Amino acid sequence: MVQPSHPGNVGAAARAIKTMGFHDLCLVAPRFPDVLTQPEAQSLASGATDVLAAVRIFPRLEDALACTTLAFALTARARVLGPPPCDIREAGQAASGHLSRPGARVAVVLGTERSGLTNEDIALCQRICHIPANPEYSSLNVAQALQLAAWEMRYALAQAASLPLMPTTEGRHDQGNEPAGNEKIQAFLAHWEEAITEVGFLDPAHPKKLVPRMRHMFSRNAMTNDEVDMMRGLCTAMIKAARREG
């Protein structure tokens, strides 16, 4: 982050990258020398104070980029001169490919809050990167922009490594979510027929096609064990209520 002026943005940036599995946040010439310990930064880091504590501060952008091998300058404005542009998704894919090389290090460069990166800042990077936002209002808060960049980087890296992209139950087994067996389904359907008869919804003397239609409806939905148990409870309550009323 180049010349950040709001401590809250620094704290929010630390949280943004930690949620995506990154931890290396660098600041270039922040407005406040004690930015890392200011209450707003600590508050908005919210669980990422370890990332905040490990932040490195540099006097110049060239110092911060000295050990990187590919840097993306994140900007909302089109630049006539400068490195080749790409969108944020292309940047994630390019970063993933680049990091497969030994010794490769990738950086995303943002800032400043008021005016963004200068042409001199961008000249120190290898690619210009854009977020495809609303062209009528494309300015993003720097921490929000960093969150999007970190997400795209994580997604590309996870895909390349065949890592899971969805949360997992870690092998925990829930029998209630298993499909109910046919015997259990048939017992429920008999109970359901009894219940709708008790409440007067079904006239056994003139059933028409009500029962087979309901059987088809419930069978089509592939009910789980928990769903059958829930409906059996409803049947029991309907029968009790009807008999109390009677």
From TrEMBL:
Superkingdom of the source species: Bacteria
Matches recorded under Gene3D superfamilies: 1.10.8.590, 3.40.1280.10
Classification of source organism: Bacteria, Pseudomonadati, Pseudomonadota, Betaproteobacteria, Burkholderiales
Name recorded for this polypeptide: RNA methyltransferase
InterPro entries to which the protein is assigned, alphabetical: Alpha/beta_knot_MTases, RNA_MeTrfase_TrmJ/LasT, SpoU_MeTrfase, tRNA_m1G_MTases_N
Gene Ontology CC: cytosol
Keywords: Methyltransferase, S-adenosyl-L-methionine, Transferase
Entry's family note: Belongs to the class IV-like SAM-binding methyltransferase superfamily. RNA methyltransferase TrmH family.
UniProt domain tRNA/rRNA methyltransferase SpoU type: residue ranges: 2-150
Pfam families associated with the record: SpoU_methylase (PF00588)
